[in-house]
UniProtKB/TrEMBL annotation:
This protein's name: Histidine kinase
Gene Ontology MF terms in the entry: phosphorelay sensor kinase activity
Gene3D superfamilies per the UniProt record, alphabetical: Histidine kinase-like ATPase, C-terminal domain (3.30.565.10)
Native source organism of the sequence: Olleya aquimaris
All copies of domain Signal transduction histidine kinase internal region, residue ranges: 44-120
Transmembrane segments annotated in the record for this chain: 7-25
Superkingdom to which the source organism belongs: Bacteria
Keywords: Kinase, Membrane, Transferase, Transmembrane, Transmembrane helix
PANTHER family: SENSOR HISTIDINE KINASE YPDA
Entries under InterPro entries matching the protein: Bact_2-comp_sensor_kinase, HATPase_C_sf, Sig_transdc_His_kin_internal
């Protein structure tokens, strides 16, 4: 009996040990596969969401240039140069996971210049920035969704206020505009803001706040932790 007991002990212990090791490696391998699948799904979803943003930005710019080429042809070359820079950002920089805050703000400034020209005499635009570190990284084409909505869905003779600040690696973007909910189809801008929420949840989980209010003015305030 003792020999049998010793035999079983010598046989079962290594068997149990190696079975445990095998199960552990299998578990770790399955976890890695799940993480890879989640990562691939996230990248595909982000790519899809960004692809919905790009055409809107480009078409708005092209429409502005077309109008100016008819009304003020002498000033059209400057607009084409700005469009070239925006195209570069949208087509190339936006494929990166992150860009510098400096590049993203330059893109926004060009976009706002276009809108000032397009809405001259129709809307008042106040834009200011206060940035302490322009070399911080940010996911591209996040802020443009907020700003584009303000221009597209504000009323005539409205005031659009855009304030972007960064301090201690925390970015705040506030955008206000007059808004007539009774005479505006809200479906389109809800889609844009919902896409923004999805991107923020994927890129900045637990590192952002997005507050949307709609009283006398429509206001969106985004806060991002860029650490």
């Amino acid at each position: 009996m003792k020999c049998l007991s010793d035999y079983l002990w010598q046989t079962l212990v290594p068997l149990i040990f190696f079975s445990f090791i095998w199960m552990l490696f299998r578990f770790l391998d399955e976890q890695n596969q799940k993480e890879d699948m989640i990562k691939q799904h996230t990248q595909m979803e982000l790519k899809f969401l960004k692809s919905q943003i790009n055409p809107h930005v480009l078409f708005n710019n092209l429409n502005t240039i077309y109008s100016y080429s008819i009304e003020k042809p002498a000033e059209t070359p400057e607009l084409i140069l700005m469009l070239s820079n925006n195209l570069k950002h949208v087509l190339y920089e936006s494929n990166s996971q992150y860009v510098t805050l400096e590049k993203e703000l330059h893109f926004l400034e060009n976009y706002i210049k276009f809108q000032k020209i397009r809405t001259e005499g129709v809307k008042q635009i106040h834009y200011q920035t206060k940035i302490t570190n322009q070399q911080l990284n940010i996911a591209p084409l996040l802020l443009i969704t907020i700003i584009e909505n303000a221009f597209k869905h504000s009323t005539l003779n409205s005031v659009i206020s855009i304030d972007i600040e960064e301090q201690n690696k925390v970015l705040s973007c506030s955008c206000k505009n007059d808004f007539d909910s009774a005479n505006t189809d809200t479906t389109e801008f809800k889609i844009g803001l919902n896409n923004l929420k999805k991107r923020l949840d994927l890129l900045y989980p637990d590192k952002h706040t997005l507050v949307i209010t709609n009283h006398k003015q429509f206001e969106v305030v985004l806060t991002l932790d860029l650490t």
